[in-house]
Design brief:
With about 240 residues, the protein is mainly alpha-helical. The protein is built from nine helices and no strands.
């Protein structure tokens, strides 16, 4: 919920930027194209390219939207299948900044669940099974499945976790300490708090950088369009005066 709430403003900003660019390409630029054609002047290469793109979008934009909608629908249907969901979850964890945040959220939930269930005295295999059911990422579920299998064979928890890079070193080390000292519930609660704090900090930093980055991106696109179009007007004015 924190991640979704933090991303609301950047997503809205991105949506507005897409609408603005679409209006410029669909309605504003064609007006200039008509003007330039009536004047019959030679246009600079960037202006000609931009006008060609605008003309193509104006004629074939509806077909492009249909193709994009069909592609998005196909992707959504694929993600709803078990293989598609597994691929999506794996991809999310590999993202540069959001992947780390997603992993921290998953591991903090896992640690918190295991800590609570250990404190009430449930057997460890059942605890890991419940942690798997509460996990929201298929990659985490697969990793916990492997840990549970090796746990049943008598290999403990920290050892199987150390074989899987998905479990961060802090979690593995604290689980090992908890196994040795008999305070696994407390150490897992400590790990959960640490991961939650790191996740909050990274979420705040990421959204703080994303908003100005999107603003600059919009300014660059709109500014480029404005400079190209008005520079062409000045060029035409110079040709007529010459």
């Amino acid at each position: 919920k924190k991640v979704k709430g933090a991303l609301t403003y950047p997503v809205v900003t991105l949506g507005v930027s897409i609408v603005v660019v679409a209006l410029l390409v669909t309605y504003v630029i064609p007006t200039f194209a008509t003007l330039y054609e009536s004047l019959g002047a030679k246009l600079p290469a960037p202006t000609a390219v931009l006008l060609n793109i605008s003309g193509w979008v104006s004629h074939y934009g509806i077909y492009l939207l249909i193709i994009l909608a069909a592609a998005v629908g196909a992707v959504i249907q694929y993600v709803r299948t078990p293989p598609g969901r597994a691929r999506l979850d794996s991809f999310v964890l590999r993202l540069p900044v959001l992947g780390r945040i997603a992993l921290l959220n998953e591991l903090s939930r896992c640690c918190r669940t295991m800590s609570l269930l250990i404190s009430v005295g449930l057997p460890m295999p059942e605890i890991i099974t419940i942690a798997m059911q509460s996990a929201g990422n298929k990659s985490v579920v697969q990793a916990l499945t492997g840990v549970r299998t090796e746990l049943v064979r008598g290999e403990g928890i920290s050892g199987p976790m150390s074989k899987r890079p998905l479990f961060l070193p802090l979690m593995v080390a604290m689980v090992a300490v908890g196994e040795e000292t008999g305070s696994l519930s407390n150490t897992l609660a400590t790990v959960a708090e640490s991961f939650e704090t790191e996740s909050d900090d990274k979420t705040t930093s990421a959204t703080g950088l994303l908003t100005p980055a999107l603003t600059i991106f919009i300014a660059v696109i709109v500014g480029f369009i404005a400079v190209v179009m008005f520079s062409a007007m000045y060029g035409i004015y110079g040709q007529f005066n010459g």
